Amino acid sequence: MQENYIGWHSNINFNHDPNLDVLIRLRMKMLKSLFTRMNIEETSDKHYYTTERYGLTTSEMDNHPFVVELLMGLSKHQEKVKPFIDYEAMKALSREQDGPEVYVLSLNQTTFKYELFYCSINKFEVERVKEVKLEVWKKCFEAIHLQKIETGVVFITASIPRSIKLFGEHSYRINLLEGGRLTERLAMCVYRDGWELQPLMTFNDQLTKDLLEIDGQYGVVISCLIIDRKENNG
Asked: Sorted alphabetically, which InterPro entries does this protein's record hold (predicted)?
């Protein structure tokens, strides 16, 4: 379908390579999609549950207690997290780290279907992404023959390419450190609330990116954690 935003080239009177034309169309479509995501209006009333546009509805809160408890626990532990000793120096240079983000695959307690949620740890916002079939997400872990998980899976992601621009060669270290600190906070939450935490080293990168709908450029999966109620593993 012809896109209006790429119609600028139609009246130019010279021969051009049709392959180049296709490449330009694809690039413009990618940029349009990127700018759409980047220009989402920020509002002061956005928080991690029950907002008009962002967050969980009342029914989603009831059907996904794991997601709600996890975010509330992270919010409490976040207050105790101290920044790196050189954080202020980096901030003065306009080098503020985005920080890791989280995707949670949670079992709906009413429909018993899995649903994917996106969680912003910095702003404590959560948004439902989509419903996911069991056979789809289990393919991400086929190499280890993962059994059915009753509660959920947590994926920690980071914007590594952006970090490279801001911090250069130190970007991977920063992302790993922040991802590790977030994993520690998750462990504190699940231990207190009776959950079981099982970190995974082996998962299919491409299938996981497809599941989370991230492109590998502005979002990279750096760790995966399976969480379940302790009594389910007895």
From this structure: Nitroreductase-like
